[in-house]
Structure formats: C-alpha cells, structure tokens
Amino acid sequence: HRRMITVRVQQEDFDPGTQLAALEAGAGAVASFTGLVRGDGGLVAMTLEHYPAMTQAALDDIAMEAARRWPLLGVTVIHRFGRLTPGDRIVFVATAS
Q1: Are 75 and 6 in contact (CB under 8 A)?
Q2: Given this model, what pLDDT does residue 27 score?
Q3: Are 36 and 84 in contact (CB under 8 A)?
Q4: Predicted structure pTM score
C-alpha cells in the first residue's frame, strides 16, 4: 500500500468525518484526536498566530517521524490558526494502519 501523509495549516474549519473516511480505505484501524477550544475562565475568543514556513516544517517532521516509526498507511494532521472561539475545532490528528 502507498502511504498517504497530509499536513495542513489553515484558517478554515475541517470536517473530522471527511478526514477519517479518506484514511479508512484499505486500513484495518484508524485512530484520531480532535482538539477543541475550551471556554475555561470565561474565554470568549483566542487568536493563534504562526510563522507559516516554520509551522508547516515542524508538523511535516512530526508526521514523517510517525510514519518512520510505525507501519502506518496514512497520517493526517490539520492545525488551524486565526481567531477561534470556544467549541471550535483547532487540531486534528489521525493515523491509519
């Protein structure tokens, strides 16, 4: 099987179901994590800023290291930036094996 590694840094929201479905083809198992913005302490909103080249490179390195260490068929990492409010999805990580 060909390994599929997808890493995206984006402002737009994402659909975890769509991302999982893309990894399920040919896999025996898919594991995922979705991080959400919490409203602890009365948080109304937060703004995530980043240095695009550094952020992309760091996440690419993490995904590639996981693919080197384990027999993964696919890896998807999505990290958002910009203004986010409680309940918004902020990060998604999924692997297929």
Answers
A1: yes
A2: 87
A3: no
A4: 0.92
